[in-house]
Write a structure and sequence with these properties.
Layout: E1 16-17, E2 20-21, H1 22-44, H2 52-66, H3 69-73, H4 78-83, H5 87-105, H6 112-133, E3 140-146, E4 152-153, H7 156-174, H8 183-199, E5 207-209, E6 212-213, H9 214-236
Helix pairs in contact: 1-6, 2-5, 6-7, 6-8, 7-8, 8-9
Pfam families: LGT
EC number: 2.-.-.-
Protein name: Phosphatidylglycerol:prolipoprotein diacylglycerol transferase
């Protein structure tokens, strides 16, 4: 599963490192670093409560399921749907899955302020794997890299990696401040969806409606959903504390 991300044949800056898929290595490294950061931060701040395992597990499982939805909407074949992944769909699926499981099990714990920087760190490292692999490449431009077709293309993967690294630094600094529980993850998701909407214009993806890609449409839907969720929580008067 880790080494599957669509790219044309013979594409890639460095698709293999010592015989291993560079995409798999960096995605695995990103997951490891993100999870390690989360566990260390949670332990340092003595975060405890019933529902931790359920929240993390549901986020991962539903995130994986959600990562397939844009590929289905894009009309991908069975192989690309089974083995491909979409960050946009994964974030939406993970959020909805956590909300569903928490409601079913009656879990009140909110962990978004701790999880947000961990996710950003993992995304930042994982996108380096996309760059080396040659997937998620950008449009032809005057500067950039040749991923294998003789054209100079915009390094959209590195631009997104840079976004997530900056987000990680900001979220890391904010995570200990007094604020509404879970708000950091919502800010992160909204900012990423906005970024992704615009970076899509510099990526090579099929335009399916009014010149927009499926990832742009899902991003717009995600922005509206998260903002709506925040408005509902504000009306309910969610308590404030620094986690």
């Amino acid at each position: 599963m880790l080494d599957s991300h669509f790219r044309p044949d013979n594409f890639g800056i460095l698709p293999n490192i010592y015989g291993f898929s560079s995409y798999a290595l960096f995605v695995g490294l990103g997951i490891t670093l993100g999870l390690s950061y989360y566990l260390l931060d949670a332990r340092t701040r003595n975060v405890k409560g019933e529902g931790v395992i359920e929240i993390v597990s549901s986020g991962l499982i539903f995130g994986l399921i959600g990562s397939k939805i844009p590929l289905i909407l894009e009309g991908g074949d069975l192989e690309s749907i089974l083995f491909g992944k979409s960050i946009v769909g994964g974030l939406v699926g993970g959020m909805l899955g956590v909300m569903l499981v928490k409601r079913i099990l009656g879990i009140k714990l909110r962990m978004g302020n701790i999880i947000a920087p961990a996710v950003a760190l993992g995304m930042a490292v994982g996108r380096i794997g996309c760059f080396l692999n040659g997937c998620c490449y950008g449009v032809e431009c005057a500067f950039g890299f040749d991923f294998g077709d003789g054209l100079t293309r915009f390094p959209a993967q590195l631009a997104e990696s840079g976004f997530h690294f900056i987000a990680f630094i900001i979220l890391h600094k904010l995570r200990g401040k007094e604020m509404r529980p879970g708000i950091l993850f919502k800010w992160y998701v909204i900012s990423y969806f906005i970024f992704r909407f615009f970076i899509e214009f510099a990526r090579v993806n099929e335009r399916i409606w009014v010149g927009l890609t499926v990832y742009q449409l899902v991003s717009l839907a995600g922005i509206m959903f998260v903002i709506g969720r925040m408005m509902v929580e504000r009306r309910k008067g969610v308590e404030t504390y620094g986690k």
